[in-house]
Amino acid sequence: MRVLTVNPGSSSLKVSLLGADDTVLAEDSGGGDEMAGLVAGLPRPDAVGVRFVHGGTDFTAPVRVDEKVTARLRELADLAPLHQPASLHALAEISGVLPDVPAVACFDTAFHATLPDAAATYALPREWRERFGLRRYGFHGLSFSYAARRAAAMLGADPASLRTVVCHLGAGASLCAVAGGRSVDTTMGFTPLEGLVMASRAGSIDPGIPLWLIKHGIAPEEVDEALERDSGLRGLTGTGDMRRVRERAAEHDATALAALDVYHHRLRACAAAMTASLGGLDALVFTGGIGEHDPAVRMRLAGDLAHLGTAVDPERNAAADGDADVTAAGAAVRTLVVAAREDLEIAAGVRSCLRRDAPPSGA
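The chain above was modelled as a monomer; its predicted structure follows.
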């Protein structure tokens, strides 16, 4: 089965055509409105998989798309406003270009369906929790699932035996505690706003701050816009691009240096919290644009967690390109870099879904 994977970002779109053995037959990227052009030059797929950030409690596994599924996905759009509308748009576009090809929605939240109640439950009134589905959903699940499994393979270990903290660090960023191949804790919550400092999102803040601002005349829509698009590194430095922040820090820019301290303070605290949820740490894994390509982030976090047994070899770390083991000799915890391959996770989900939904042989 040839699977076309569609991975929409808030302002970008990446498509990959994978063969039956997961060989990349073709891939392309562009803006969110370029679906028809991107697909036109590719061989016809047997199925399509579209990444969705949020599946709520309705979708805890990949699902074949129909009108009912699409309607429910629209209802979830306000929980992930930077990404869910883009995925819905991509789904509509692909349905127009390939109307007879089965489409499957694959969800970042699905990997976190295994969160224990203690990790998923907010201490809010029961009525609100039940009426509105207020709970920690977690995100980046497609990336976490692949990275944890790939890390186990790199270590020659059974995933069931590992306690792993996976750091998906990019414009959006979160951590996941993976025990036995299952998510047991994560830093994002009801929406992707919770947790780490990100490119344009504040991460965890005192919930009283938005309330205070609204009471003092700031419109809710303005608060929402600021928390989603004008906070994080952008709010601290004027840019959400970590590379530019690094350049300015290298020039001893005080604002950039302070922003990196804020970024790492939160990253260190959250990584330690994920380790506590696991009861120990066997592997620290970095993935995502910053996780894969910023050696300084890896070096600093490993140093911050040295009391837990992490240490990075400077030369291996600087030379890492793609999947790599950057552990220092003698370190108790292995530190790995795993290239993000959400396309592989999407393709696996598509095949699993269509096999599950296929009529019995001979029917």
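The chain has a mean pLDDT of 94.
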